[in-house]
Design brief:
5-stranded parallel sheet, FAD/NAD(P)-binding domain, globular, 2 domains, alpha/beta, single chain, 21 strands, 590 residues, binds NADPH dihydro-nicotinamide-adenine-dinucleotide phosphate
Length: 590
Amino acid sequence: MTDPDPSSIEAAKARYAAERAKRLRDEGLAQYETLSEHDLDRDPWADPGFTRPAIIEDTDVVILGGGFAGMLTAVNLQRQGIDDFRIIDKAADFGGTWYWNRYPGCMCDVDATIYLPLLEETGYMPTEKYASAPEIFGYCQLLGRHFGLYDHALFQTEVESLTWDDDAHRWELVSTRGDRLRTRFFVSAGGLMHKAKLPGIEGIDRFAGTAFHTTRWDYEYTGGSPTEPMDRLSDKVVGIIGTGATSVQVVPQLARTAKEVYVFQRTPSAVGVRNQQPIDEEWFRSLPPGWQAERTRNFTEVVTGGKPDRDLVADSWGQALREDTQREPASEEEKAELEAIDFEVMEGFRRRVDEIVEEPATAEKLKPWYGKHCKRLCFHDEYLQAFNLPNVHLVDTDGQGVREMSSEGPVVDGVTYPLDLLVFASGFEITTSLVSRLGFDPVGRGGVRLSERWHDGTHSLHGILTADFPNFFVVSFIQAGFGLNFVHFLSESTAHIAWLIGHCRSEGIASIEATPEAEDEWLQILWKASGPLARYNTSCTPSYGNSEGARTMLAARSAVFPGSLMDYAEHLECWRADGSLEGTRVVREA
Ligand code: NDP
C-alpha cells in the first residue's frame, strides 16, 4: 500500500463532516415509529388461533426471550445444575432474530463456525462459511431439542407485568396468556434487535399499496419462500426504504424477480467482498476439542485490534478491522498513521463501488463517506452488482431520507414514486429505553418502576445488575461489552448471569442487586475509557451505534465497554474470582 496523500485525507474528513451534518436530525431517536402504531406488527409465522391453558406455578428462573441470548442463558443454567426455569417468548418458536428475519437472502455475515454456538456440544457442521437464515433458524430448533428446552418454553406469550415482592424475595409475573409465575430470578434476554422500527415519514399510512417490515416478510404477497424465488413479483413495482445490512441482502433478491425495484437511500453502506464458500467436512471434522472457543476468541481479537499471531477465520472483517483506528494515539505521528489506515480502508470500499457499478453517477452516490468504525460494515457479492440491472433504480435522498408519503408511494424532491409494494428495511430500536423495548415496566422494590429508575438511561453494574431491582439480570451490550460476533458476547454474559444465579443459590443469598454507588463507578469507568471512542464518534454519520448522533444523557449512558470484548470478559472473570460480589447489595436467606 502506498501512503495516501495527506490532502486526500483532509478532503475526506471534510466530506465526512459535511455528510454527517446533512443527516443529523433534531428528533434523534424519536424520528422513528413502531410497527404496532401502524398495524404492521402481525406475526406471519405463528398460528393466530393458538390457545393454551394458563399456568400458575413457582419457578427458580424466568428467562424472557428464546433467541440465542435466552437459549444460552438456559444452557448455562443447566451447567450450574439449575433446571427449574421457564423461557417466555412472543414468537411461536425458538430463534429470536432468526425466527423473525425470514426475508429473502437473509444470512449471517459472521463466520458460521463461530456464530452458531455450542457446535462441539451438538456435533452440527454448518454447510457454508456464512450460514443462511433458514439454516440458523433450524439450528436454533436443534439446540431447543438437544438441550430439552422446548419443555421449558412458553411461546406466543408476552409479559404483561413483573412486580418484586420484597418480603418473599420473588418476582410476580403475569403474562398475556393469564399465566401467573412466581420466580426467584428474572433474566431479560429479550434481544437487542427484537423491536423493529419504521422510518419517520410524514403521512406514512397514506400509502395505499402493500407494505411490511423486513422482519414480517409477506410471502403470500411476494410468492416464493426464504429459499425459493419470489414468483409473484414479475408485474410488481417494489420500493425498499433503507440501505443497511438487511437491505444489502434483500435488494439482489428483489432484483431477480420484481418488474422494477426502487432503492431509497439515506446513507450508503460500505460493502466489501463476501466470498461465500462451503465448509470442508474433512477440515471441520479434524478440528481438535476446544476449537470453537479458541476460534471465537481469535476472531474477536482480530477484529478489535488485538493482532494475534494467526487469523483463524481470515475473512473481510479481519482485513477491514484488524487495526483499531478508534484508539487513543500515543503521538501526533500515530494519530496521522491511524487516520491514514482508516482512510485507506474506506477508500477500498469506495474503489470497489467504481469497479462494480457501471453508471458513474450511481456509483458516486453509493460511496460511503464516514470512518470504518462508524457503521456496521457489510459484505456482499451481489448488492452493488444489482445496480447494473435495468430494473434496479437508486433513489438517493442526499442524506435527508424519505420524508413524505403519498397514497401512491414515497415522494422525494417533489417526485412521487408509485409502488405496488413498499418494504421497510429500516432496522430496529437498539438504544431506546429498555422499558420501550421490553413492552412492560417492571416494578422493583418499594413500587419503583424501571422507567422511573432509568428515566435518564441505563444504571447498571456491568450492564447486568441494577439497584432496586433484585435478582433482575439484563443481557444487553449497553454498559456491557460488545464485540462484533454478538454470540461471543452472549456466551460471556449469559455464563456470568448463570454463575451469579448459581452462586446465590449455593451461598444462601435470597437477593442480589447493584448498589447505586457501584453503578456510578461503573459508568465512570466506561466514560473514562471510552474517551477516544467518543471522540471518534463525533465525526461519525448518525446511526443506531451513536444513538443517531444525539447528545442526551440517555445516549451518554448507552456507553459500551470500550476495547475488546475479551477485556470485558476478563473484568467479569476477575470480579467472580474475587468472590466478594463487589458493588452489590445482597440479602441472605433467613
Ligand atoms: P439499519 O438500522 O442498519 O438500517 C436501517 C436503514 O434504514 C438505514 O440505511 C437507514 O439510513 C435507513 N433509513 C431510516 N430512516 C430512513 C428514511 N426516512 N429514509 C430512508 N432511509 C431511512 O437496519 P438493518 O436491519 O439493515 O440492520 C440492523 C442490524 O442488524 C445491522 O447493523 C446488524 O447488526 C444486524 N444485521 C446483521 C446481519 C448479519 O448478517 N449478521 C444482516 C442484517 C442485519 P441511515 O443509515 O441514514 O440511518
